[in-house]
Specification:
By secondary structure, this protein is of the alpha/beta class. The chain is 40% helix and 21% strand. The protein is globular and about 55 Å long. The two termini are 37 Å apart.
Length: 209
């Protein structure tokens, strides 16, 4: 089940309309139908920005949590159907970009703790991401993120994260990472506002091209 967010944002960054519906699946035809409905109520729409839960390579979705989108050729189809600028970016990248812009930290490396496991069968992850079992996978992934990206901050959100878990994760990471390379750990209630901000900034940049 998926609950995609749909937002219409003005040229000044104000949210004009916000919707969220739960779907069994999402494919290109669903997306076109939804945007058709939005455009019927907002004929001045200039751009479409997609935040995709997957790996983006140019105009292609190489890997996605929503399997139907991997073969959808969605960017080209949207451009042909709507005759608008269409941008497509990984949703976590949008969130990190939006967080940095909101916090005015554009020159720092910001990492959001979206858990991409290393050396673990993806089918095993849901059983591990529950209270009482999640510490090991979270700690290993955060340690790998620090080693690979050397971020200034790691931002966490979600029901499984609390101050005790963060303290234990930090202690785990200190076993192998020198203190001077330890990032600041922060918690936020959710990432939605940062996702919208990041997608808005992408639209602004497109306008300036």
């Amino acid at each position: 089940m998926f609950g995609p967010l749909r937002n219409i944002v003005s040229a000044t960054g104000n949210i004009i309309r916000k919707e969220c519906t739960v779907c069994e699946t999402i494919d290109c035809e669903n997306v076109i139908s939804v945007i058709d409905g939005l455009i019927s109520d907002c004929s001045s729409m200039k751009q479409i920005v997609l935040g995709i839960p997957g790996v983006i390579d140019g105009a292609e979705i190489e890997f996605c949590d929503i399997k139907e989108l991997e073969i959808a050729d969605i960017k080209r189809k949207l451009q042909e159907h709507f005759k608008l600028i269409v941008s497509m970016e990984n949703d976590m990248h949008c969130m990190a970009y939006g967080y940095g812009r909101k916090k005015q930290q554009v020159n720092e490396v910001i990492t959001l703790a979206g858990f991409m496991p290393f050396g673990i069968n993806p089918d095993e992850v849901p059983d591990m991401m529950v209270e009482g079992k999640c510490f090991d996978i979270i700690s290993r992934i955060v340690g790998a993120i620090i080693a690979f990206q050397n971020p200034n901050e790691i931002v966490f959100s979600g029901d499984l994260i609390n101050n005790r878990i963060l303290s234990e994760v930090k202690d785990y990471c200190r076993r192998s990472i020198p203190e001077k390379y330890m990032p600041v750990f922060k918690m936020v209630p959710g990432f939605t506002e940062y996702l919208i901000e990041g997608m808005f900034q992408i639209a602004v940049e497109n306008k300036e091209l």
